[in-house]
Every structure is written in C-alpha cells, then in structure tokens.
Amino acid sequence: MDTQFLVSLSIILATFALYIGIAIYNKAKETSEFYVAGRGVPPIFNGMAIGADWMSAASFIGMAGTIMLLGYDGLAYIMGWTGGYLLLTFLLAPQLRKYGRYTVPEFIGDRFESHTARVIAALCTIIISFTYSIGQLSGSGVVIGRLFEIDAKLGTMIGVVLIAFYAAFGGMKGITWTQVAQYVILIIAYLIPVIFMALQLTGNPMPWISYGELVGKMGELDRELGISEYFAPFTNGTKWQFLALMFTLMAGTAGLPHVIVRFYTVSTMKAARWSGAWALLFIGLLYLSAPAYAAFSRFILMTQVAGSKITELPAWTKTWVDTGKLQVADGNGDGVLQWKELIISNDIVVMATPEIANLGMFVIGLVAAGAMAAALSTAGGLMIAISSAFAHDIFYRVLKPNSTEKTRLSVARWSIVIATLLAGVIALNPPGAITQIVAWAFALATGTFFPALVLGVWWKRSNSQGVIAGLLVGLGVTLAYIFAAKYGGFTILGIIDTGAGVFGATAAFAANIIVSLMTAAPSQKIQEEVMDLRYPEQMVYKDGEVWMNDDESKSV
What is the C-alpha to C-alpha distance for residues 358 and 367, in angstroms, rounded to an integer? Predict the structure, then answer.
C-alpha cells in the first residue's frame, strides 16, 4: 500500500466522517426540516449550499476538461450555467418563495388547482433528478476507482451507500449544512492546483489574470502542429449548437427542481434574492477558474508530454492509461508521442492535473476529496428532490392526505434509499460522459419546468389544462429529440442531443399558451394570487389594488 494511497484515503475518510457527523447533528425531526430545513438558513450559508448543490461532478471534474478539449465552444457551458442563475434569481426564485410551498410540484399543483398537474410535475421531477444523479454517481465512481485503484463500479456503489445514509438521515436540514462544508472543501481543492500552476507557468499566483499570457503561445503551438486553433469559435459544432446548448443550460438551471427548492429554505423573498447573489459569487470562483485550469493543463500537455519519447513519458501517464481514460499510441511508429496521438478523456483533466503539474500527494488527495464533495453534495440534493416529489407531492398530497408526520418521514427516507440504489445500478454502466448525461437533465428541465414556472408566475391566464399540455408536450419533444439525435443521427441545424431543450421549451410554451387560451380562464382567486407574487412580501395584491400587508392601507 503506497504513501499516495494512504494520504488520499486519510483525506477522503476524514471528509466522509465530517459529512456523516454533520448529518447526525442536524437530523431532521419534522417534515418542514426534512423538506426545507425549517426555512431558517441564513442567505450567505444558503448561497454556499447552493454553490455545492450546483457544482456537481460535471462542473468539478468535467468542466475544465470540456473547455480544454473544445476550446471556445466549451464556453457555452460556463455562459449557460452562470446565466441561468441570473434568470432564476430575478425571474422565479423570490416569487416561488413568496408562494410558500415545499416543492416545485406543490407550487404547480396549487397554482393551477390540479392534482393531475401536481402528479405530472412530480414525475418530471423524478425523471430529471434521476437522470442528473446518474452523472453524479458515475463521477464518484471515477474518483474512488482511480484513488483506491479499484474498479470504478465498486467506487460508484461506495458513493451510493454514503449518499443514501446522510441524505435519508439528515433530510434538507442535514444536507444544507453538509453542503456548506462540501463547498468549502471543493473550492479549496479546485483553487490550490490552478494557483500553483499559475505560479509555475507565469510566476503570477492569480490564474484569472495570468492565463492570458499563454493565449498567444498556445496559438503559435496550434499553428505549428497544424490543428484547429484553441480559441477559434465553432470548430467542434455549429453556431446553432452553441446557442442551443447555452439556452438549454441557462433555462434548465432556472427550472431544476433540486436547485429551486434551495430558495425555499430561507425565511423571506429578500433572503431568497440574497441567496442567489451569494451563490453567484461562490459559483463564480470555480467557473472563472475553469478556463484557466483548461489553458494551463493544455499548455503543459502540449509542451511537456507531446513531443516526448514514448519510452520516457511521465509516470502519471501509465496510471491513467490503466484506467482507460487516457490513450497514448505511437501511430506513425517514430517512437515520439505526437499531440494528435494523445487521447485524453475530459472527465480526468482536473483529477490528473496535480500529477501533470507535479504538485505533490497531499494536493492529489485534496482534489480527490473535492471531487467527491462535488459529486456527493449534488447527489444529496437530487435525492431530496426525488424523495419530496414522491413522499410529499404524490403520497401525502394525493394518495394519503391523512397520513401522520412519522409515516411521511418514513416514506421520504425509504424513497431516498431506493432511488439512490436504482441510480447507482444505472451509473455502473452510464449511457454517456458525465457532462453529456447532466446536459440531458438540463434539457428535460428546460422543456418541462422552465415554461411551466415562467408562465405560472408571470401569466395569470395560464390554466391547468395549459400547464398539463405544456409539461407533457415539452417532456415528449425533449426526450424524442435526445433519442433521435444520439441514436438516430437526426439533427436540425446541427443541434445535437445536448441542445434538445430549445425544441422542448418552444413546444411547451406554445402548447401551454394555445391550450390555455382555448379553455376557461383560472378562477379570480388564482389570478389575484399570481398578481400578488409580483410584489414584495410587505405588499399584497387584492381586489385589483396593491395594499400594505401590515395595516391594510393603500400603497401608492
């Protein structure tokens, strides 16, 4: 058992113990604590929890690798995912918080006065969150498998057991404070390597500023090697795919149920807005670092690995070749590894960077702990979303409205355990790369919840028949396009499966609007409730006028 293994194992086990300890200390004792953490989370800590919930294995493990391989085209991920938080913070989160429900399906069911709409929304939540969780569990398998030199499938199952325990035990209350700790660990783990690489390559410890120095050098290297320039746009897909992917990720962010529910854990609309502002700051630390990560890693690979003799490659390459995530082959038989002969998976760039830059075993172990924190924090939030959709929206609100709190908590916990195990089984043989699977989840959220929530909050004429039609049509169109593009080679304007949300959202908006206009308008009570959502909490909309909430006096 080598020293690296022992160091990595110690760091991972220490963080696991921390997460479990936090979950036990913050055990949810009632349903409001299980679903919305008792609505008492301070905005700055909620912003950290949102950041950890958001920065999944796809962001931590896959983001920098995707940008390294795609160059300019990879920026669609950063622009889409970050822009989505602006949409959510200003367009939906405060209004949904004012409505005061526990979950997205509960908002849809009550806003449209329809159990059918509630059940369909709950099923959409389960489908989206389940798809997303497969990517997270697959990511945890990559990390654990590489570190402990065991099969990635066994690594996945270790992650399943851990998530099932602390998510089922602590509920949203436990997960919130676990995610705060996970954010701190993952951001430290992400920033240390990129800061050290910046020092090594540029002498400047500020990677966000210094990586620009390498841009010109990398352009020269690209031209020397006769490959498409790293910063040239639309070399890996069409302009329409770039825009469709960016829209899908942006609208999907604003429609993801496990992200939206985080805004329910604060006390007021103002706190919801501040949570979004803090979240943008915390997320920005990672997203602004990802392009620097990608540029530094690519530069080191181009200058220190490519051009080396096959027999004299760095020791770290053998370890990753053994995982199947790195391929080096002397295609032309000259004994020298050319850039085009180096095939690296985008899922290992961040994990391999400490070894590529020779940063030492402690940093390697820390990055592994950060990657696990990213995968586990998001998976925990997803499992709460699945649990609340089934236990609260279907079991309690539809099937057994008279069930006791103890029964509801029991059903919620068991649904987490079962969902985690099922997602883990599928993650043993995932249907795509981590970022691709996650993009499908965003496409499904774009095609279903984004139109339903935007129209539900901002168009009082939208009714139950309209939202049901929108959800079903959006879900059907998005799924059909994903399958047709991935397995049938069908594309429109070069838009592949990861951009499917643009078609789902268009169809859902059209179906919702057309069906709503063809059927009876919602009740006056519902229309006034929708108008009320547009005003601050100290104001209330009533009888066509805005009133102050405290003394019922008219507000100008």
Answer: 13
